[in-house]
Amino acid sequence: MGILSYGRAFAWHAERDPDAVAVWFDGETVSRAQLESRSNRLARAYAQRGVGEGDLVTIALPNSVAFFEACLATWKLGATPNPVSAVLPDVERRAIVATADPALLVGVPDGDYPDRQTVPVGFMADAGLSDEPLPDRVPVSARAMTSGGSTGRPKVILDLTPAQCDPALPENRMTAGGTTLVPGPLYHAGPFITAWQSLLSGRRVVLVRRFDPSQCLALIEAHRVDWVLFVPTMMQRIWKLPDDEKKARDLSSLETVMCSGAPSPAWLKRAWIEWIGPEKIHEAYGGSERIGGTAISGTEWLAHPGSVGKPTGGRKMKILDADGRVCEPGEIGEVFMMPPGGQGSTYRYVGAEARATGDGWETLGDMGYMDEDGYLYLVDRKTDMIVTGGANVYPAEVEAAIDAFEGVRSSAVIGLPDADLGQRIHALVDAPQGFEEGALRAHLGERLVRYKIPRSFEPVDGPLRDDAGKLRRSALREARLDAEAAESS
């Protein structure tokens, strides 16, 4: 077909088969023609509010058809979507808006930003506006994702790839005419990219409001889903459903189960490989910055258990120690990356600076090592490492062992000050039915060296990771330090 703008790419599919289902959401379907006409009218409403080429549009909508309409309308004006959580605290949202400086905020109550153009949740474009195609425009940036970063201050990651594609060529192991399940929040990069790769190549999207393990299996069976993106937290919650429930579902339509967003515990990856089949299980690692990325199939993983794969698409990676020396195979260091086009070719930060070496290699702050065959293994984020009694402990390893304990839904491991050890390992454990600490310690004793076993455990009432699998250990640590300080004062 050739390369088209995102707006024209979707229109091309709508023209070819207008009645085909584009999105299933909450039991209702929206056709390609409906999504096309609504986004055209909405684009004109946005234009009346000042949106033009090169602008950012901050979209604070929950998972919904309206989210897709807002993105498509934005692209059709030559502007760039900046998706954010619909439930951000006001202080955090204002910090993002100050950084992004959008031309329009979507999903914000009237009056919240008197000095900015806004439209609320449920906004409908004036029916008198035309829903005919708009002049074709190619946004210079496909998306502008938002991250809190390691500093806690918001930053916008402006993707430098133009918003265009070949609508006849599905990406990322997808096939034309198939169905993608999107169980994660659309304001995160993985679900956002997955959903639009699907819609812009003529696939159907099955979208849920919020991840639910039982519902996901039911939807895969009912819609004959062939492609799905999960984060490890989702895979774990599905795996821990009763065996009878898992076996009762027909998952034969699945061709690709992609895992991303965080390192997948080895026990969990092996369990899914044995359940679904190694040829269908895949994992990808990278960041919204697209400076580097790896991929691995289940078949490869069996030969390199624990790995997240080799660099893809001409990207390069190397492991450096604290002195900037290239690490030997098996030696842990910080992961540095270089895209094919060199530093600065894939993204630009707004509100932050990249962490880079003098020759342009950048890092996302992850620690890992490579084996003799060039496969990457992640151990944890550098900023989350715990030094206890002179030994380095990576929380992700401890969390993986805790999460494998019967009844645990999620966990978080942090380091708290200790007069003797420097830091003591403290574990927050989300187990809905409770847990017996002695049994958990015995379980961990079979999996971890003694110094890695937490000195203390704290039961919590709810999931510690959000629907995208994200965990803010720094915030959990600060809350406990504040509580300790309050008690001692």
Give a verbal description of the structure.
This protein is an alpha/beta fold and 489 residues long. The protein has three domains: 1-161, Rossmann fold, CATH 3.40.50; 263-382, Roll (Luciferase, domain 3); 385-488, 2-Layer Sandwich (GMP Synthetase, Chain A, domain 3), CATH 3.30.300.30. The protein has helices at residues 6-16, 32-48, 65-76, 90-100, 189-199, 213-223, 232-239, 243-248, 266-276, 298-303, 395-403, 437-445, 473-488; strands spanning 4-5, 21-25, 28-31, 56-59, 80-83, 104-106, 118-119, 144-147, 155-159, 164-165, 179-182, 204-207, 227-230, 256-259, 281-286, 293-297, 310-311, 316-320, 333-338, 347-350, 362-370, 376-381, 386-388, 391-393, 410-418, 422-430, 456-460. The strands form seven sheets. Strands 3-2-12-11-13-14-15-16-17 form a nine-stranded mixed beta sheet, with helices on both faces. A hairpin with a 7-residue loop joins strand 8 and strand 9.
Task: Please supply descriptive tags for the structure shown above.
489 residues, alpha/beta, Rossmann fold, Luciferase, domain 3, GMP Synthetase, Chain A, domain 3, 3 domains, nine-stranded mixed sheet, four-stranded parallel sheet, 13 helices, 25% strand
Spatial shape:
globular
- Structural class category: alpha/beta
Largest sheet: 9 strands, mixed
Count of DSSP strands: 27
SS element count, helices: 13
> For the CA atoms, what is the radius of gyration?
23 Å
User: According to CATH, what is the class of the largest domain?
Assistant: Alpha Beta
Distance from N terminus to C terminus (CA atoms, Å) equals 69 Å
Question: Domains counted in the coordinates: how many?
Answer: 3
Which regions contain 5 or more consecutive residues with pLDDT less than 50? none
